[in-house]
Design a protein that fits this description.
By secondary structure, the chain is α+β, with helices and mostly antiparallel strands. The chain is 23% helix and 35% strand. The relative contact order is 0.12.
């Protein structure tokens, strides 16, 4: 199963230009509110019409502006679930799922399959008001899958649920993708959710896909500064690249050998990749190390986020330390540290003007 979409258009004053592909995988559309994620789903589903481009599902064109193809939503074989599940309050769970195919020969069999797949046993005759939030989302997923679909589109379906329910439904979604072997396109602005779910990620901003790739590729090697900002890289520096080194705040740092950039570049490092080392700050230090003092220490869950200022040369830096290393290192009782920015963890991005 394959989704291929390359289209552009306008929704009022908002211009969009989107190009994405997905095999039988879970593709996360990630970006802030207003980035163009929802209009992308609506266009694929046939609920919004782009000005030009193509959309193909499993090799079948459902939209092609040059060929004057524009199939209506009911002919596109798409399942679509939004945050507001919009179940019919007066219908039972079974009738909500089977709406539109109740009189067909396969209705009973389809209900039995989806009831087992989505763990809806015992809910047949309940009304939506008698269901928990998680159960309502399972019913909405069953309704989206009651007909054979070539792609499942999910627009922040779990955002209104508490974290425990979200965790359960994320696991269910990953299992569903493996079972049905169809592309699932999942919209979120939650960075953690994108990490947890994605096989591939499309980072969106202002109606454009800035980077599309595997989860590890996008989060590990952002293609430009804006992608790095959107995906949580807090330490970012503009500097000049001189072969294997860059100078940041008056100090030279060695880069990864395969960085492939030159001239003016952006260099970043994720907070969890910067290290606190037990070297004597007054001794000669290894490369990519400098002395800094903790000026801020914020605890959240199982991590501490430290802000450090250099004593001399070197950048201001944010370092994230897990709770156990924080205790073992004795960070709470010491404010002067050697900070290491390992070359292999430095992200080098060519300047793109955005």
């Amino acid at each position: 199963m394959t989704l291929s979409a390359d289209f552009s258009g306008r929704a009022g004053e908002f211009a969009y230009d989107v190009s994405i592909t997905a095999e039988s995988e879970l593709l996360v559309l990630y970006g802030h509110s207003g980035a163009g994620k929802t209009i992308t789903l609506r266009t694929i589903a046939g609920l919004a019409r782009p000005e030009q481009g193509t959309i193909a599902l499993n090799g079948r064109a459902v939209f092609d502006s040059d060929a004057s193809i524009d199939l209506p939503p009911q002919e596109r074989r798409t399942g679509y679930v939004v945050q507001d599940v919009a179940l019919f309050p007066h219908l039972t769970v079974r009738r909500n799922v089977l709406i539109g195919i109740e009189q067909s020969a396969e209705a009973a069999q389809r209900w039995e399959q989806l009831r087992a797949t989505l763990h809806l046993e015992g809910l047949d005759e309940r009304r939506p008001s008698q269901l928990s939030g998680g159960q309502q989302q399972r019913v909405a997923l069953a309704r989206a899958l009651v007909r054979p679909v070539d792609v499942l589109l999910l627009d922040e379906p779990f955002s209104a649920l508490d974290e425990a329910l979200r965790a359960d439904l994320r696991r269910e979604l990953v299992r569903l993708q493996r079972e049905f072997q169809i592309p699932i396109v999942f919209v979120t602005h939650d960075l953690r959710e994108a990490h947890l779910l994605a096989d591939s990620v499309a980072v969106m901003d202002e109606g454009r896909v800035l980077q599309l790739g595997s989860r590890d590729e996008v989060f590990g090697q952002p293609s430009r500064r804006r992608v790095a900002e959107l995906t949580g890289v807090r330490n970012l520096f503009e500097c000049e690249c001189d072969g294997e080194r860059v100078t940041i705040a008056g100090m030279a740092f060695r880069l990864p050998s395969d960085h492939g950039a030159e001239g003016t570049v952006d260099v970043g490092i994720r907070s969890e990749r910067a290290n606190l080392r037990r070297f004597d700050p007054d001794e000669a230090l290894p490369e990519n190390c400098f002395v800094a003092r903790v000026v801020d220490d914020l605890a959240f869950g199982n991590t501490h986020t430290l802000r450090l200022q250099p004593e001399a040369t070197g950048p201001s830096i944010e370092v994230e330390v897990a709770a156990r290393p924080y205790e073992v290192l004795g960070v709470a009782g010491r404010d002067r540290w050697v900070v290491e920015l390992p070359p292999e963890d430095l992200i080098v991005m060519a300047r793109t003007g955005d």
